[in-house]
């Protein structure tokens, strides 16, 4: 079965990819994912590191664990994969190309270069650098575990070369470079192991430790990369671009536009970061002109927005008062450019064929019966479109121009029927006069179809733009947004060779302070710090509700509209364009945003793979997740079986034309919505996705209801997963809001147990009732035996008394997995489950009922024991209580069928001996009930025992059925 990462890579690899690299991804990647994805190459949790180092006898376990955990997370899988792909990508510039065998050695040497981290992750000792024989054996064992033979059947013949490269990838510690220390290699020219192979491996390994594009100039790693290039005789230089701010889709657009510009300079991207790219460029590079690059980026961004605006998708909104135009639309296009495009927008936005506005508008006018009867013939969608076009052009471009009014009346041919004054009748911001004129025109041409009317509007729009331009009637055009965008790029965009132009804190603070005064005429942007000019949020721009209080308004002011800067307005419009989300509506669906960061770095191949996922990620059906997880015996490898991609993404390869709708995701963005009304409904999906994607792809994910990223880069946080203010069920599960690599398995198992138990016991398909998930989690975290209580309630709801064998096995495993994942210090769940199982085993010695019997019959001894403990006076001695209860249980057994008493059924001894054995077994069982259950667990508190009575009985029934099934299976085998 293909893994998600493997599928994404194979779908996006270029056609000319080397067959050996293709084979590596096809054959080896699944094994690497299996072994390496939960091992930390960098970062990881302090507790996990400390525990392993202590077990290995490290004298400095505490200091080393702290040092390791101070790094940001990167798992061993992406460390190896991105390192290999980076080394592979620069190998094409070698003066002497790699041979086929050398390509195999490059792949396998880099795969094993951090074998020590794998061993440490498994809690195993690693050989010292001088223990060559042990290193060879370790590489052989790990190669067999990773199925190297599927990739290269002759790999063991080159074990010496592979181990040598793995041991000597790094140049700092742990190397063993002396050829005499190693067995004789099979490769013909041993010098090729050093140059180019070892230096290629070193280049890839150094590169995946970078956290920022500027590291090539600010960190020693940059100098080390340049040294590798010199050793390899690759006459290239390293350059970068970086955007120090992160907004979302706009940031990705700036990055991709910069990459397109760099492509014209023959810069090849080799490393992708959340905030930029490192390129391989010619040795004699020229620094690009800042103004040319700014112009190019603006043309790319505005071109995308413009095409969406002119298609009517964004930048316009129609409400009860007519069509509204976003300020950004008016700034992107001059009046002469926009007017001819308005007919298409009108056609898209004015589509209320069944409920046209014209009849309602005409009711407000004082007309004679004869005139009203006539114009009612044209009171339909045709008149709506004509009126909206006339009204929007007048409002935005011509105001009260009498020339415009007369020109329109002449075009409609009704200048003798309706006066200019009648066209300007308004009320409540709505122009009724133009609806009157439009309806008159349509009534005069009643046979015109809507399509023909749309064509006429297009002709009028062209004529209007030409006439107004010739007569200088159009207002002057300015684009503040373009100027602000240039300022934004000047402050935040860096390219190697440019002088830094960091934003001024004083300017930003002054703008903020001024805006908080009563004299301020504009609010501060509610999404940013207020360094750029802002305007009132328009409902045609923002995705959320614009009319909400903001503490960024002036102190003591009455204005409740929030502000938005020009930069964030661009971001909101881009989200409308790419996500197809109507303005002002997204907030109603309680969106939770997923911001997906690289773990340090992407190679070009992994960046394309992540892009495919983000653009084609399917809505994940948690019923399917539940099913797959159970089929895989509750193993998190079941995540690979989930259909992650839409059907369209499975039809073909996408390296050429897939990404027209969005460019490479430096910070990939996705979001979830819900039809439910609770916070639990909103967070069920994103909590699962935020945990799944780092496990499957090695990325870092932040889930938050914030519509802007809470971090600019992955270097700003160490953890792999951050959930920002999740629903309460998450923390009730005992899960931290921030997780390291070693926390994944425990967190995912706990989450899936809770989801699956809820779907099994509280849902009513197809309604999962996620609003009640908090109740499920609260009960299970309170007492593990509530798992069986919930199961019993589910059976009653389904009008069944007896669970199936599969259900018994499933719920028992839920409980066992749950207590196993409990990381609390006391972990009472383990003791409770052990005690319940012990009690059932003890009474099964003297009493066994058929599994087809009722719960009352199966639990007879336990029910009797609890009843006696709860009914006897408190002053009764413990030993007397045990003897008294044992006698009553003995009497109860005497009234049962003989075959239910296994000790009495044993004919190999006389009756007296059998009765003694039975009584002894009953006494043992009753002793456990009184001393361990009642006195130790519940502290002799009868009220507490009574409160937990049903939980104990539910747990005991499932334990009984589980033990009976185990016994039956053992007999069969």
Kindly describe this structure.
This protein is α+β, with helices and mostly antiparallel strands and 973 residues long. It is built from 43 helices and 17 strands. The protein has a 5-stranded mixed β-sheet, with helices on one face. A hairpin with a 2-residue loop joins strand 6 (316-319) and strand 7. Helix 14 crosses helix 15 and helix 35 (786-797) packs across helix 43. The chain is flat. The protein starts with a helix and ends with a helix.
Could you provide a short overview of the structure?
The chain is of the alpha+beta class and 973 residues long.
Q: Unreliable segments (pLDDT under 50, ≥5 consecutive)?
A: 649-662
What's the story with the biggest beta sheet? 5 strands, mixed
Report the strand count: 17
Shape assignment: flat
**Taking all residues together, what is the mean pLDDT?**
90
Q: Give the count of helical stretches.
A: 43
Radius of gyration: 36 Å
Helix percentage: 40-55%
Q: Give the helix/strand class.
A: alpha+beta
Q: Strand share of the residues?
A: 5-15%
Distance between the termini: 31 Å
Across the major sheet, the strand order is 14-13-15-16-17
């Amino acid at each position: 079965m293909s893994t998600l990462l493997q599928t994404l890579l194979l779908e996006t690899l270029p056609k000319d990819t080397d067959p050996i690299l293709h084979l590596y991804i096809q054959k080896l990647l699944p094994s690497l994912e299996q072994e390496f994805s939960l091992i930390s190459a960098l970062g990881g949790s302090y507790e996990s590191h400390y525990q392993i180092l202590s077990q290995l006898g490290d004298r400095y376990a505490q200091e080393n664990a702290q040092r390791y955990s101070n790094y940001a997370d990167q798992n061993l899988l992406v460390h190896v994969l991105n390192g290999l792909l980076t080394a592979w990508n620069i190998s094409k510039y070698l003066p002497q190309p790699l041979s086929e065998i050398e390509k195999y050695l490059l792949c396998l040497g880099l795969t094993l270069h951090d074998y020590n981290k794998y061993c440490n992750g498994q809690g195993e000792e690693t050989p010292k650098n001088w223990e060559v024989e042990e290193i060879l054996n370790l590489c052989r064992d790990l190669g067999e575990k990773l199925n190297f033979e599927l990739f290269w059947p002759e790999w063991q013949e080159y074990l010496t070369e592979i181990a040598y490269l793995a041991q000597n990838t790094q140049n700092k510690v742990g190397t063993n470079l002396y050829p005499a220390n190693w067995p004789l290699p099979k490769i013909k020219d041993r010098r090729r192991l050093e140059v180019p192979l070892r230096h290629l491996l070193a280049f890839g390994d150094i590169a995946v430790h970078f956290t920022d594009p500027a590291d090539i100039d600010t960190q020693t790693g940059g100098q080390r990369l340049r040294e590798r290039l010199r050793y390899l005789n690759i006459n290239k230089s390293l350059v970068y671009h970086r955007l120090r701010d992160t907004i979302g889709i706009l940031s990705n657009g700036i990055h991709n536009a910069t990459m397109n510009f760099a492509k014209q300079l023959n810069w090849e991207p080799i490393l992708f970061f959340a905030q930029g790219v490192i390129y391989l460029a010619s040795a004699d590079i020229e620094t690009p002109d800042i103004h040319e690059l700014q112009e190019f980026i603006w043309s790319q961004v505005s071109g995308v927005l413009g095409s969406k605006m002119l298609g009517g998708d964004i930048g316009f909104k129609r409400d009860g008062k007519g069509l509204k135009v976003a300020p950004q639309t008016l700034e992107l296009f001059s009046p002469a450019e926009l007017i001819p495009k308005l007919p298409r927008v009108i056609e898209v936005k004015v589509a209320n064929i069944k409920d046209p506005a014209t009849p309602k508008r005409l009711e407000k006018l004082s007309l004679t019966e004869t005139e009203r009867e006539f114009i009612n013939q044209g009171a339909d969608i045709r008149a709506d479109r004509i009126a909206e076009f006339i009204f929007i052009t007048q409002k935005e471009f011509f105001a009260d121009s009498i020339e415009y009014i007369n020109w329109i009346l002449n075009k409609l041919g009704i200048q003798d029927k309706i006066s200019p004054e009648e066209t300007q009748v308004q009320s409540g911001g709505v122009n009724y006069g133009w609806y009157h004129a439009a309806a008159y025109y349509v009534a005069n041409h009643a046979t015109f179809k809507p399509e023909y009317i749309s064509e006429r509007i297009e002709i009028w729009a062209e004529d209007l733009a030409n006439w107004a331009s010739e007569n200088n009637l159009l207002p002057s055009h300015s684009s503040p947004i373009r100027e602000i965008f240039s300022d934004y790029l000047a402050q935040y965009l860096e390219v190697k060779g440019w002088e830094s132009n960091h934003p001024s804190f004083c300017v930003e603070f002054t703008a903020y302070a001024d805006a908080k005064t009563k004299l301020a005429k504009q609010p501060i942007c509610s999404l940013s710090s207020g360094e750029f000019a802002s305007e009132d949020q328009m409902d045609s721009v923002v995705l959320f509700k614009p009319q909400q209080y903001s503490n960024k308004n002036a102190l003591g002011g009455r204005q409740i509209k929030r502000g938005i800067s020009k930069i964030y307005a661009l971001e909101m419009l881009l989200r409308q364009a790419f996500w197809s989300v109507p303005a002002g509506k997204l907030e109603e669906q309680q969106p939770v945003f997923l911001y997906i960061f690289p773990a340090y770095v992407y190679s070009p191949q992994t960046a394309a793979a992540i892009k495919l996922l983000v653009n084609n990620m399917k809505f994940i059906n948690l019923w399917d997740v539940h099913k797959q997880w159970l089929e895989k015996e509750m193993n998190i490898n079941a995540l690979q079986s989930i259909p992650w991609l839409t059907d369209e993404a499975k039809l073909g390869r996408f390296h050429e034309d897939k990404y027209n709708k969005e460019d490479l995701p430096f910070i990939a963005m996705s979001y979830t919505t819900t039809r439910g009304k609770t916070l639990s409904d909103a967070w069920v999906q994103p909590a699962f996705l935020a945990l799944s994607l780092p496990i499957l792809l090695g990325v870092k994910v932040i889930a938050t209801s914030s519509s802007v990223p809470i971090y600019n880069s992955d270097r700003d946080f160490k953890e792999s997963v951050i959930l920002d203010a999740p629903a309460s069920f998450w923390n009730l599960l005992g899960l931290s809001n921030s997780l390291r690599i070693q926390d994944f398995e425990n967190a995912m198992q706990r989450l899936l147990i809770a989801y699956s138990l809820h779907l099994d016991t509280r849902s009513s398909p197809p309604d999962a009732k996620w609003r009640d998930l908090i109740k499920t989690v609260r009960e299970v975290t309170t007492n593990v035996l509530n798992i069986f209580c919930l199961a019993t309630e589910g059976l009653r709801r389904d009008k069944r008394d007896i669970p199936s064998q599969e259900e018994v096995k499933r719920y028992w495993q839920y409980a066992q997995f749950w207590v196993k994942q409990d990381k609390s210090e006391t972990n009472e769940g383990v003791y409770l489950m052990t005690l319940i199982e012990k009690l059932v085993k003890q009474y099964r010695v003297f009493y066994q009922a058929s599994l087809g019997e009722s719960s009352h019959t199966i639990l007879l001894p336990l029910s009797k024991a609890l009843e006696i403990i709860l009914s006897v006076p408190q002053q009764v001695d413990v030993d007397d209580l045990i003897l008294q209860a044992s006698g009553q249980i003995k009497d109860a057994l005497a009234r049962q069928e003989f075959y239910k008493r296994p000790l009495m059924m044993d004919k190999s001894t006389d009756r007296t001996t059998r009765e003694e054995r039975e009584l002894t077994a009953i006494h043992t069982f009753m002793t456990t009930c009184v001393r361990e259950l009642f006195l130790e667990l519940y502290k002799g508190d009868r009220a507490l025992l009574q409160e937990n009575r049903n939980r104990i009985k539910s747990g005991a029934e499932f334990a009984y059925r589980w033990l009976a099934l185990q016994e039956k299976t053992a007999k069969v085998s």
